[in-house]
Design brief:
binds NADP nicotinamide-adenine-dinucleotide phosphate, three-stranded antiparallel sheet, six-stranded parallel sheet, globular, 401 residues, 15% strand, Rossmann fold, alpha/beta
C-alpha cells in the first residue's frame, strides 16, 4: 500500500507546463482518479467552480496560475495580481470546507525580497519587498503561505507551500510575449539559425543571475512533498546553483550552434539582481535533491523545441497571430493551409468581417481528446466559424486536430 493508492487528486493547472509532468508522475504512481480543471470550463477565479472541483477529492495540488516572464509581468500586473489572489484564496478555502486531506500550494522564488542574502533562505522570506517587476505575482502567491499557516492554526487544515525556482524543460511556453528566459532564448537562437539571421537581441545587461530547475525534478519534488511533508513552513525547491544570464545566453547559443552576434538591449530590465535558493530544507524534510544538470536539461529542451515547435510559432499559452488568406482562396482553405502547413492545433476567433487577413488564436495541446473538446467549445463561442467548418464538405479537418 502506498500513499497514493485510491487517492482522488485534483491538479489545477494540470494541463500546463509543470502540471503535465505532475500528472504523468501521478499516473506512473498508479493514481487513477485525477481531475484537471480547464480554465475554459471551470474558471478558478469564480468561487463556485472551486467548490465543484474540490468535492470528493483527497488531495489538491494547486498549480493553476496567471503568469509569465518579465515582459508579461510588466504588461499585465493587475490581472496577474487579481487572478492569482482570487484563484488561490478561494480554492484553499473551498478545499478546507470540503475537508480535503492535503493541499499542496505551489509558490515561487518571486516572493522573495529583491535584496536578500544568497542563497535565499526560507527564514528571510519576509525581510523586504520583492523585485518590482514581479511583485504583484510574488505577493499574490505569498498570501497562500499566510493562508496556509492561518488555516493550520485555526482549523488544523493540512496544507504545504513550496517555493519553486525558475523552471525549464520540454513543453515549456515558447511564446515570446509570455515566455520565461530559457524558452525565449532557445527560440531566438534556433529560429535565427533557421532563418540565417546573424544577430540575436537579448534583454538586459546579462549581469543578473538565476537558478534553473528542470521541470521533471520539480514534478518529483511536488509528489515527494505531498507524500512526506506536513508543515506550513515554506520550502524552497531548486537546483541549488546560480548562473549569470550572460553565461546562460552563451551556453544556450553554443548548444543551439548559433555563431552570430548577440546584442544586449540594456534599456530592458534585468529583473532581480541575483537568485539562488538554499535547498537544504527540502532535502532534510522530504529527501528532495535535483538530479538533472543544466547543460543536459537545456540540450533536451532545445531538441524538443527543434522537433516539436520550430517554425510553428505556437506555445502552451494562448497566442495571437495573423493568418493571411491566399488570393482567391476561401476562408476555409486559409484555415486548412495553416493547419496543414504548420500543424497548429486550435484556431478560433475568426471575425465575421473577414478581409484578406484573419485574426487567429493558436493553442497547441498535446493530448488529442482535450484538444478536441476545447476546440469544440471555442467553436460554439464563434458561430461564424462553426458554420464555416460545418459547411465545408470535406470533414477530415477534424482528424488534423
Ligand atoms: N514555470 C516556471 O518557471 C515557474 C517558476 C516558479 C513557480 N512556478 C509555478 O508553477 C506552477 C505552474 O506553472 P507553469 O509554468 O506550468 O504554468 P502554465 O504552463 O502557464 O500553466 C498554468 C495553468 O493554469 C491554468 N489556469 C490559468 N488560469 C486559470 C483559471 N482562471 N482557471 C483555471 N485554471 C487556470 C491553465 O489552465 P488552461 O490550460 O486550462 O487554461 C494552465 O494550464 C504555477 O503555480 C507557477 O506559479 C512556475
Amino acid at each position: 500500500m502506498t500513499f497514493w493508492d485510491f487517492k482522488k487528486v485534483l491538479v489545477t493547472g494540470g494541463a500546463g507546463f509543470l502540471g503535465s509532468y505532475v500528472v504523468d508522475n501521478l499516473e506512473k504512481k498508479g493514481v487513477k482518479d485525477i481531475t484537471i480543471p480547464r480554465s475554459y470550463l471551470h474558471d478558478l477565479r469564480v468561487r463556485e467552480n472551486n467548490n465543484k472541483m474540490v468535492k470528493g477529492k483527497d488531495i489538491v495540488i494547486h498549480l493553476a496560475v496567471k503568469g509569465g516572464g518579465i515582459g508579461f509581468n510588466l504588461k499585465y500586473p493587475g490581472a496577474i495580481f487579481f487572478d492569482n489572489l482570487m484563484m488561490n484564496t478561494q480554492l484553499m478555502e473551498e478545499a478546507r470546507l470540503a475537508n480535503i486531506q492535503k493541499f499542496v500550494a505551489i509558490g515561487t522564488v518571486c516572493s522573495y525580497p529583491k535584496f536578500t542574502p544568497v542563497p535565499f533562505k526560507e527564514e528571510n522570506l519576509w525581510n523586504g519587498y520583492p523585485e518590482e517587476t514581479n511583485a504583484p505575482y510574488g505577493l499574490a502567491k505569498k498570501m497562500m503561505l499566510v493562508q496556509s499557516q492561518a488555516y493550520r492554526q485555526q482549523y488544523g487544515f493540512n496544507s504545504i507551500t513550496l517555493l519553486m525556482a525558475n523552471l525549464y524543460g520540454p513543453k515549456d511556453n515558447f511564446d515570446l510575449e509570455s515566455s520565461h528566459v530559457i524558452p525565449a532564448l532557445i527560440r531566438k537562437f534556433v529560429d535565427a539559425n533557421e532563418n540565417n539571421k546573424k544577430e540575436v537581441e537579448v534583454w538586459g545587461t546579462g549581469e543578473a543571475s538565476r537558478e534553473f530547475l528542470y521541470v521533471e525534478d520539480a514534478a518529483e519534488a511536488i509528489l515527494l512533498a505531498a507524500e512526506k511533508y506536513n508543515k506550513s513552513e515554506p520550502v524552497n525547491i531548486g537546483a541549488g546553483f546560480e548562473i549569470k544570464i550572460k553565461d546562460l545566453v552563451e551556453l544556450i547559443a553554443g548548444i543551439a550552434e548559433f555563431d552570430g552576434e548577440i546584442k544586449w538591449d540594456t534599456s530592458k530590465p534585468d529583473g532581480q539582481p541575483r537568485r539562488c535558493l538554499d535547498v537544504n530544507r527540502a532535502k532534510k524534510e522530504f529527501g528532495f535533491e535535483a538530479k538533472v544538470d543544466l547543460r543536459e536539461g537545456l540540450k533536451k529542451t532545445i531538441d524538443w523545441y527543434k522537433t516539436n515547435m520550430r517554425g510553428r510559432g505556437g506555445s502552451m499559452e494562448i497566442r495571437e497571430g495573423m493568418l493571411r488568406k491566399k488570393k482567391g482562396g476561401s476562408r476555409m482553405q486559409a484555415i486548412r493551409d495553416l493547419i496543414d502547413t504548420e500543424k497548429l492545433k486550435h484556431i478560433m476567433n475568426i471575425p465575421e468581417n473577414f478581409g484578406d487577413k484573419v485574426e487567429v488564436i493558436v493553442l497547441p495541446f498535446n493530448k488529442d481528446e482535450k484538444s478536441k473538446s476545447y476546440y469544440l467549445m471555442k467553436m460554439q463561442q464563434h458561430p461564424g466559424y462553426i458554420q464555416a467548418l460545418l459547411n465545408d464538405p470535406d470533414e477530415d479537418v477534424w482528424d488534423d486536430l
